[in-house]
Amino acid sequence: MTRPSVSVDGKAISISGANNCLSTEIQTVATKKIPKQACTINQLAARDILLVKKIALDEDIKLAVVTCPGTTTQAIQQQMCVITAWSDTEALLNSSNSNACANEEGIYKTGSSCLISEAY
Predict the structure, then answer these.
(1) Does residue 55 sit in the same domain as residue 66?
(2) What is the pLDDT of residue 101?
(3) CA 110 – CA 3 distance, rounded (Å)
(4) What is the pTM assigned to this prediction?
(5) Residues 50 and 2 placed together within one structural domain of the fold
(6) What per-residue confidence (pLDDT) applies to 75?
(7) Could you tell me if 78 and 105 lie in one domain?
């Protein structure tokens, strides 16, 4: 199986190998020894997302991130919903899909196996 990777700021990022954003190297800055930064904060975030996706896939968990119901596009900070679903439940907010976690308003469907978390 090929390990997934993404490109962020022109650098290929993966969860293992040379492009994993982790560094054991030390550098000296203003006479202080500090860990050498292998990646930018955006590249490190991409690595973390790849790692979460791999763990979810290994555990047969479906993930989705959507704009939470009732959130306006004019909001300064959009409220996002992280949907985690397992078994036959899909990580969706959809009234017409019987396997969706919840309807478009974010109301859980009876018998669904999922969790909706809000994030900012």
Answers:
(1) no
(2) 98
(3) 37
(4) 0.70
(5) yes
(6) 61
(7) yes
Per-residue three-class SS string for the chain:
CCCCEEEECCEEEECCHHHCCCCCCEEEECCEEEECCCCCHHHHHHHHHHHHHHHHHHCCCEEEEEECCCCCCCCCCCCEEEEEECCCCEEEECCCCCCEEECCCCCECCCCCEEEEEEC
Here the tokens at position 47 are: 């690595």
Residue with tokens 């550098």: 27
Residue 13 is predicted with a pLDDT of 82
- Same domain for 52 and 65: no
pLDDT score recorded for residue 33: 83
Q: Provide the residue type at 119 as one letter.
A: A
Residues 70 and 82 in one domain: yes
| Ordered mean pLDDT values, 10 residues apiece, the chain (120 residues) | 73 78 78 78 86 91 93 75 97 97 97 94
